[in-house]
Amino acid sequence: MVRQWVTIPAYVEGGRRKATQWARRKATEELRRQAMGRVRSRVTEEVRRRVMEGGHPQVLAGASVVRHLPVRAGAGRAAVSVESADMRILVVEDDRDLQRLLKKALSEAGYVVDAASDGEEGHFLGDTEPYDAVVLDLGLPKIDGVTVLERWRKAGRKMPVLILTARDRWSDKVAGFDAGADDYVAKPFYTEELLARLRALLRRAAGIASPDIEVGPLRIDTRSSRVTVGGNPIKLTSLEYRLLAYLAHHKGQVLSRTDLVEHLYDQDFDRDSNTIEVFIGRLRKKLGADVIHTVRGLGYRLDEPSTAEEQH
To answer: What residues make up the domain containing 254?
Structure first.
């Protein structure tokens, strides 16, 4: 009888620990499922693929108006920046109207965009997805933006973060920078300024000072969105743009199929790494230059023709 009274509590305690661990796993899975569901429900194919023709929305953030200003020469569908066409951006903003306008403007600028409406979801997505940059509001529900940013940095997340907030006190700006922010835009603002700051952040993160990227005879002019080989213009589709630009921003680096797929499509897209081979084949055929090299068993690399030892 004594042995029974000794062993039963230990057994019950072990069962409690297992039940607690199971509950935590289920809670984590449910949080991920809910976050993914909210992102998928907000993704719109039309917004993701279309680019305005004849006008570009200049959003006065924090106000209830959207101003349409004249577009500079060469803008429109053909002027989606190659610099942005390869990049995944996370927008964390609790104002639904402003979030919608930012997603629209960023998508039309050629970015792949995901969005979150509170700090908890934003932190989760930024901690688990390979974003190239984040537009982060400070005044978020559940978890404030500064705390979200601090957690990302402590976890080793190095993507550029542009703080977006209605706060204009210098102490708030200092808190944002000290938490790890790379730039700061106060509301109200024009999207043209936000996009320019975002382009600069992405260039610096990639170690590129000039808006022109050259690899052998290949030249990408990110100001006019022109791709040329030996001075001859090359016409590419939007997905081919994204793939080539991402390779160019990581010149000399070997990128796996998984890396390329994650930056070619947004979260809602049914990703298939086999499509990368198709796009690589198209790019090689259109470019003609031997600048995209296969590194067997690892992936692909964009580099000077003379530096490649691999065959494709």
So the answer is: 212-307
Q: Are residues 155 and 226 in the same domain?
A: no
- CB of 59 closer than 8 Å to CB of 105: yes
What's the pLDDT tens digit per position in 189-247?
A: 898 999 989 988 988 887 776 767 888 899 887 666 678 998 899 998 878 877 888 88
Report the relative pairing of strands 299-302 and 292-295 from DSSP bridges: antiparallel
Q: Give 266-311 pLDDT, tens digit per residue.
A: 655 555 667 888 889 999 999 987 899 999 889 999 988 755 444 4
Q: Is 263 part of a structural domain of the chain?
A: yes
Total number of domains constituting the chain: 2
Closest by Cα among 148, 303, 286 to 214: 303
Q: Residue 212: which of 82, 304, 111 has the closest Cα?
A: 82
Is 11 inside a domain boundary? no
Task: Compute CA distances 270 → 113, 129, 166, 273, 274, whole Å.
Answer: 15, 15, 36, 10, 12
Residues 177 and 220 in one domain: no
